[in-house]
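seq as requested:
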Amino acid sequence: MKYRKLGRSGLKVSEISLGSWLTYGKSVEEERAIKTIRRAYELGVNSFDSANVYERGEGERVMAKALRVFPRESYIITTKAFWPMGDGPNDRGLSRKHVFEQLHASLKRMELDYVDIFYCHRYDPETPVEETLRTIDDLVRQGKVLYVGVSEWTAAQIEEAVRIADRYLLDRIVVNQPVYNMLNRYIEKEVIPVCAKHGIGQIVFSPLAQGVLTGKYRGGRIPEGSRAANPEINEFIKGLLEAGVLQKVDALQDLAEEAGMTLVEMALAWVLRQPNVASALVGASRPEQIEANVKAVDVELSQELLEKIEEILA
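struct tokens:
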């Protein structure tokens, strides 16, 4: 495993991170989930991602349970808040009340004293950014949160947060968690330049485009047990299964095979080519999947190969 500094902070994260969205706590039985998480740790993964909303806390609970056998200082565990956790008017968003209560609920579920990174899971237009950042700053000062992050914020929203943090001497954002892969590159235009300017690193999710960049949907087939076959998950992936997209994926897979690597290795190495990206956040339901993913850290993409990839994506 290789490690990179997270933005301008001193925190070093593994180039491959493991997440619990859509997997641990529901679709993957607990015993297999724990084996997968522990296998990732054995392979050198030190960055583990969760959120309160993942199966209403079950994702957090399973991930923390799996990691409890290892020294706490040897891994990074994260959580988030924003999405609804109840039916009440204050059971969502980034108000001081919701952030404070959700962070403590997450710590209780995970049986932890602190989380390494706390993310604002989305931008909340109904709450002043100062209120949110001051609340998280209080939690940092209490030792319950070590680093501050955001997820899927725009470049303008990140700029606003940095400006407010500097004005009031609040703890600064050090990480953004956006979607980024060969088929979704929106962060390249504005988000990465803004983050690089302010010392904010990226831990990107969906680097394999919900599994589409594994090649499992080649020819338009939908394997039994895949995400696309699950009606609860299908809405997140259906736009990626259009004929034009799959033609590009087929061409990328052919290119990877010609270069002597798997499409997974090529897709993850392509994401990690970005110096502002500290880690690619993957999902894995079996130990062999995380074993396949971590091989990407040893893959170097030549300039010629990168140009061929660009031709296909264009």
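The first strand starts at residue 3 and ends at 5.
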